[in-house]
């Protein structure tokens, strides 16, 4: 936990400041819901009233990231648990001021950063290694090994909806098995458990009684078959992962069990919701109809478009994923997703590494001091590019610098890069799903930046609806836990809730088609220049892709070589 980095409670609209006020309220509350929101950068615990879903207490802390090498991102699993416990304690301390107490919390939900993988010893309960964070690219060599077997990065797309990439948990588990002796030993002795962060949290909160995950998190492992929603035997075999290590896959909303950990102030409470944080914000944004699309702007950007009860498979680099399943017998709703690895992280980089910004929150002020980015383009491909490019060999570039370029232009270009990357994905979504996406729902910390929202509308040519509920993620997870069968704090009535509680600021496009086309064309040229920069890592997927391309053109190569041999032979024959 980062000392002194407790973050302010963001519940801007605290409804009940005292018991008296609470009594005066007309709303008949049915109980409170607590949400553990475990993000890459921030961990929080929020408490909501039901059925009106007002956040009445919250505590957040920043989580440290360990970067032992370039492209390696780790987090301490013990710090994750300590932070969750601390946040829950602090949030619960705020309840009496609102006229509530801990015993009013009827249930708890979890939402978490996805793909990030933890392995632990089932006997001691201790982690066997740090968590490998979703954006860690150390598994490039593992990707290469797998590609050597299956050749095509899209080999598992039909079964999982995902390409073979460093991003997903299967690669991380396999890397840990191959490279960490303690993990290998624990696997041999059948003591090794593996899972995404939700599983680690549940295991700890239930003293090892439950090893579960939900279908949204499972759909990001590259091990779950989208059709059966079970671990796929072919994939387990390909990645040499034993099913016994993995959690049982459950729905997002059902009574999972009780919290029993004596370390947690939540002891005795029920757990009834789990879902990945991007799926939670899709739900929190009430994108429940096919075609409804949201983008969450945080360290990364994650655009999800609801595709209803049918998975849509991508031909252009988008991921097919489970959006939610609100009960064991509820239908599975799918989404198509475009993930951007570096969004707000580019601003943190400008702040912490190059010191162009005193704070990432100042980005708006700095960028507003110039009317345009002065033709500067910033492609923040720090660890390659995710959707729709999926190129590990890309690296960041800032292009178009002149002697007139000031730091403000670069900051503005960083903001624009977030918008252009979003447009890249929107274009794909349109081609892939055929949905006419006519507005974009926006949430996440970065959306406090008004200029970013306006630039997004101007870049995409779409109205942007910014949720006033900045934390749609926790809100979505709260609804999910509250509506579980047996908890019944609310019915899931998206249309109703949508208008009652969630208010939006709208940003309308102010650019012409021509302007957008021109600027987007330049962005594409900049992206083109960032690709293929890493050539020394012959260990990478691109290398295998190169091999694959060479292999695919093998008949042509054989033809050329044999023609050359015949020519040499005939020349030699003529000479004699
Ligand atoms: N007010 C703000 N203006 C601009 N950027 C912000 C603001 N607040 C946070 N950020 C950016 O958002 C990212 C962190 O968002 P957060 O939701 O805490 O992270 P995470 O998605 O990693 O859990 C950081 O990369 C930071 O640069
Ligand atoms: O915690 P965030 O907002 O960076 O979300 C991370 C994503 O879930 C990774 O896929």
Automatic annotation (TrEMBL):
Pathway recorded for this protein: Polyol metabolism; glycerol degradation via glycerol kinase pathway; sn-glycerol 3-phosphate from glycerol: step 1/1
One GO molecular-function entry: glycerol kinase activity
Keywords, in A-Z order: ATP-binding, Glycerol metabolism, Kinase, Nucleotide-binding, Transferase
Superkingdom, taxonomy of origin: Eukaryota
Alphabetized Pfam families for the sequence: FGGY_C, FGGY_N
Carbohydrate kinase FGGY C-terminal domain: residues covered: 299-483
GO biological processes: glycerol catabolic process; glycerol-3-phosphate biosynthetic process; triglyceride metabolic process
A single GO cellular-component term on record: mitochondrion
E.C. designation(s): 2.7.1.30
Domain Carbohydrate kinase FGGY N-terminal: 33-284
Gene3D superfamilies in the cross-refs: 3.30.420.40
Family annotation (NCBIfam families): glycerol_kin, PRK00047.1
Family to which the UniProt record says this protein belongs: Belongs to the FGGY kinase family.
Protein's recorded name: glycerol kinase
């Amino acid at each position: 936990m980062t000392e002194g980095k407790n973050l302010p409670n963001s519940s801007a609209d605290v409804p009940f400041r005292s018991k008296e006020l609470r009594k005066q309220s007309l709303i008949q509350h049915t109980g409170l819901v607590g949400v553990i929101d475990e993000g890459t950068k921030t961990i929080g615990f929020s408490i909501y009233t039901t059925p009106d879903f007002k956040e009445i207490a919250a505590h957040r802390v920043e989580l440290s990231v360990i970067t032992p090498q370039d492209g390696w991102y780790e987090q301490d699993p013990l710090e994750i648990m300590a932070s969750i416990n601390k946040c829950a304690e602090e949030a619960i301390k705020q309840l009496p001021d609102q006229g509530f107490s801990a015993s009013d919390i009827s249930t708890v939900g979890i939402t978490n950063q996805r793909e990030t993988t933890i392995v632990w010893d089932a006997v001691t309960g201790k982690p066997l290694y740090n968590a490998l964070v979703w954006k860690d690219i150390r598994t490039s060599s593992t990707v290469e090994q797998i590609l050597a077997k299956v050749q095509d990065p899209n080999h598992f797309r039909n079964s999982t909806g995902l390409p073979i990439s460093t991003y997903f948990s299967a690669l991380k588990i396999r890397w840990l098995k191959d490279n960490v002796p303690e993990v290998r030993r624990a696997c041999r002795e059948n003591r090794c458990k593996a899972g995404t962060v939700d599983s680690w949290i549940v295991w700890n909160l239930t003293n090892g009684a439950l090893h579960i995950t939900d279908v949204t998190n499972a759909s990001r492992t590259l091990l779950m078959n989208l059709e059966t929603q079970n671990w796929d035997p072919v994939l387990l075999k390909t990645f040499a992962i034993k099913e016994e290590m993995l959690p049982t896959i459950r729905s997002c909303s059902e009574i999972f069990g009780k919290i029993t950990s004596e370390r947690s102030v939540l002891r005795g409470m029920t757990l009834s919701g789990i879902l990945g944080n991007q799926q939670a914000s899709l739900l929190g944004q009430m994108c429940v109809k096919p075609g409804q699309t949201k983008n969450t702007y945080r360290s990364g950007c994650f655009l999800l478009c609801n595709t209803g009860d049918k998975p849509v498979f991508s031909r252009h680099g988008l991921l097919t994923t489970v959006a939610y399943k609100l009960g064991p017998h509820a239908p599975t709703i799918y989404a198509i997703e475009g993930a951007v690895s570096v969004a707000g992280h580019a601003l943190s980089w400008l702040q912490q590494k190059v010191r162009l910004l005193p704070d990432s929150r100042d980005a708006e002020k700095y960028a507003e001091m110039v009317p345009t980015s002065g033709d500067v383009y910033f492609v923040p491909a720090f660890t390659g590019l995710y959707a729709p490019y999926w190129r590990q060999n890309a690296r960041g570039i800032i292009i178009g610098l002149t002697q007139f370029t000031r730091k403000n232009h670069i900051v503005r270009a960083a903001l624009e890069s977030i918008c252009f990357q979003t447009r890249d994905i929107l274009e794909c979504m349109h081609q892939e799903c055929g949905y006419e996406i006519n507005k974009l729902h926006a949430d996440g910390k970065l959306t406090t930046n008004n200029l970013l929202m306006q630039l997004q509308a101007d870049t995409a040519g779409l109205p942007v609806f910014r949720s006033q509920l900045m934390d749609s993620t926790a809100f979505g997870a709260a609804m999910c836990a509250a509506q579980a069968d047996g908890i019944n704090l609310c019915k899931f009535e998206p249309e109703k809730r949508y208008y009652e509680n969630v208010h939006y600021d709208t940003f309308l496009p102010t650019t012409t088609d021509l302007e957008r086309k021109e600027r987007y064309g330049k962005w594409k040229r900049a992206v083109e220049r960032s690709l293929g920069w890493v050539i020394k890592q012959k260990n990478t997927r691109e290398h295998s892709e190169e091999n694959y391309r060479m292999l695919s053109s093998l008949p042509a190569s054989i033809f050329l070589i044999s023609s050359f041999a015949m020519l040499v032979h005939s020349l030699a024959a003529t000479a004699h």
